[in-house]
Every structure is written in structure tokens, then in C-alpha cells.
Amino acid sequence: MAYELRRHLPRELAEAAERIEALAVDYGLDFFPICFEVLDHDELNEVAAFGGFPTRYPHWKWGMEYDQLAKSYEYGLGKIYELVINNDPVYAYLMRSNSLLDQKLVMAHVCGHADFFKHNLWFKHTNRKMMDQMANHGARIRRYAERHGHDVVEKFIDCCLSIENLIDIHSPFVKRRRAARAKDDEQEAKGPVKLRSKEYMDRYVNPPEFMEEQQRLLDEEVERQKRFPAEPERDVMWFLLQHAPLERWQKDILGMLREEAYYFAPQAMTKIMNEGWASFWHSKLMTEQILIDAEVIDYADRHAGTMASARGQLNPYKLGIELFRNIEERWNTGKFGREWEECDDLEALRTWNRDTGLGREKVFQVRKIYNDVLFVDEFMTPEFCAEQKLFTFEYSRQASDYVIATREFEKVKEKLLDQLTNWGNPVIWIEDGNFENRGELYLKHRHDGVDLRLDWARDVIENLHAVWSRPVHLETQVEDRIKLLSYEGKKHSEKTL
Hints:
By secondary structure, this protein is α+β, with helices and mostly antiparallel strands. The protein folds into four domains: 2-120 and 270-302; 131-172 and 233-268, no CATH class; 310-408, no CATH class; 426-496, no CATH class. Helices cover 54% and strands 12% of the residues. Strands 6-7-8-9-10 form a five-stranded mixed sheet, covered by helices on one side. Helix 22 (454-468) links the parallel strand 7 and strand 8.
């Protein structure tokens, strides 16, 4: 199998890939077979524009992505070093013009990604044959475009893509919807069931306050069953797929794009961990096993470029690798647990070393069960924050520039967690699919500190109207006031509740 995956590679690259994968396995990494493809820069930009898949459905956004990547490469503003796909086998792309050092660095990095894809809990339910599935989606959508018209299909895809982040990212692991229960008309008529007792003991066996509470719960259940949906629905794409008045081809396209949204969701949920884990292992493999003396300076230059942070942006590679290194060091020296947390001797804390040697075991455990939110919440400490010089920033009108707002640990951590929760996107629920008994759609924004961009929100409810075919309403919060945005098919309206 390994030979089949590498026989199309130049001999030098095939030998490097075989050696690097063997070293990665020796370090404890485990992954599906890796298929490396060598492409020219324009071919690689094309594949990257498609999200790493060589065949996708026809849509204008792929051309836009390609144009941006191509110009970035031509103007020397950046280039793609690694592109890897969660699949079995794993597909990874190498740029033909890169040096051998770059290719070895990418191969080591890909081994880390491949191990993470296979073992991280949040990728458990992803389709491992998505390379074939994406091609299948593209073929089906092309047939619909030929049958119904390219512009018609593309316009519907625009509507679907505008809500592709309105899914329930935890639904593969949590059962949200209650199973439908048969109605018991007799029980509903009689009220709550009473326990059998003698008449003189009834007030003790079935006390009035208990019976009133049971009746209240029954009434709430009856009202709940009358609502549509019975409970607020977070997976907006699923709700539309089930209840929107769509043609068969539209339902098929919406279902395909929802499937793709769930495939990419774990990658958004683990961006820091995934890139940090791959960087953690490429660093170990390169510095401990692969580099020769003549390559050290060039490698340091490449690695430093990857770890650098652009102004005002969080670098997931840097934060991820440093957190994994910090975890390994803490668990190797015993800087965890009750004894460590309760120690108030500064000198003892500074020189603390219990030589437990648990670091490697711990990082593999973390890689398996955490996502970015849990990772940062659990392992980012005040000491780590100070060591990495993390801070929040805000725009200062006085300085006419962005300035440091605070270095306080709790506020820095809170800000970072806000950015990571639901990928920094607002959380939207469907509250009512039959608002005011007129078949209108009513959505509610759960305001957790993430404001809606009202211009974007108006575009989204307009697209929702195109799918739902009835007026759409969205409740949100703007500067401590509850506002209702509505679109009835011709114009937008807004009112304060």
C-alpha cells in the first residue's frame, strides 16, 4: 500500500516520505496511509481554492478564492506550504518548486495532522471517504445546473452557503430532539395520575401541592407539543431540509451542503489544537531526527516564519505549539495536581521538579479528547499567559490606532474563549416555524457578547426567505435593546421590542 501511494513521487521525495513516516510512528503517532501529490503552484492554488479537494460543484466563490491565492503568490505576499485532507487515505499536497528541506518539513507536519484526524474525538463522525463524496456532490450539482439552469442553481447555492454556519456543531454527540410520544387522550382528560390510597390517607399520599405541580407539568407538555418546533432548533439547515417547501433538487443540494458543513466543522473547532499538534511534531522530528547541519539555519527561518504573528491576529500555530510544549513540561515536572496548586512558596514553585515523566502520555491524551475551547479553558494558565506576553487590544480614538487594552489573565482568556466559542459566530436558534399562526419563520439570536453585523443579518434573512417562501423574522440585541429584523419579500423592516 505504501509503495502504491508513493510510486508517482520522485525517488528523493518517496524515500524522504518513507523515512519520516517511520520516524513518526516510532514517536507514537498513528495515522491512515498518506498519499503525497506534487503540484505546480497554480495547480496547488486551484486545489486550495476548492478547499483541498480537486473536484467540487460549480460556483463563483472558487474563482474568487483562486484569484486571491494566485495574486498573493505572484506578489510574494505568501504561498501554500502544506495542504492536507482528512480522508482515508490522507491526501497531502507538495509544491513542486519547494526545496527538499521544505518538502521534508511539510511531510513531518502532515504526519501530525494525519494522527490528529484519526484520533481526535471531534473527528470521530466525519466521513473518511470525503474525497469521493465531494466529487459525487459536484457531479450531482452539475446535472441539476444542466437541467434547471446554471444561474438558478447557483443562486440557490448562494442561499444555502449564507447559512452553512447555522448548524448544531455538537449534534453528532448529543441527542437534542425528543422522540415523539403517542398521545394519551384519557390521561390528558383526567389529569395527573394519583397513587392508590385509602380515602382518609389520600391527602398524605397525594398532597395537593404535589398534584398541582404534576398538573402544571402536564399543561406545559401539552403546550410544548403544540409549538413548532416543539423546542428551539439550532440546526437551521436541518429544519429547512425537513420543513421548507423545496423542490426535490433543492432539498438534495441543501442536504449535500449541510453534509459538507458538518465535515468541515471539526476543523474549525480544533484549529489551534490541530495546527499546534502538527507543529509540535514537525519541530521534534526535524530537530531531533531529520535535519543535517547544513539545513539548520534554513529550517529555523521557515519555522520562525510559521510561528510569526501578523499585527492584530492570533496565530493558531504559535499558540497551539506553545500550549502543547507547556503541558508536556508541566506533566514531566509534576506541576499539576493539588500539591502544586496549594503551594504558596514562590521559591519552591520556581524550582519545582518532581520528575514524573508523564508529559508525553499527557499530550497524547489531550490530543484525543479536547477541542480548542476546552483546550484553552483547561490548560491556559496565568503563568503561560505572562510567558507568552498575551494581551487584548482595542481601538483608541485618542491615539487613532489600536492599543493594548489589558494584560490581565482573566480578561485575556475570556476574550480568547469568546472568539473560539462557535468559531466566533453568533448563535442563532429557530424559535417558531409558524409565527403568529401565519407560517412565518421566527429566529432568535442568543446574545453571548457576540453582536450581529446588521447588514449581514439582513442578507441572511433575505436568503432564508428565498428558501422558506414566507416572511422571516430575527430577534437580536443592539446596545441593550431588543430589536426585531423582518423581511417580507420586498422590503426590510425593523422595530424595537
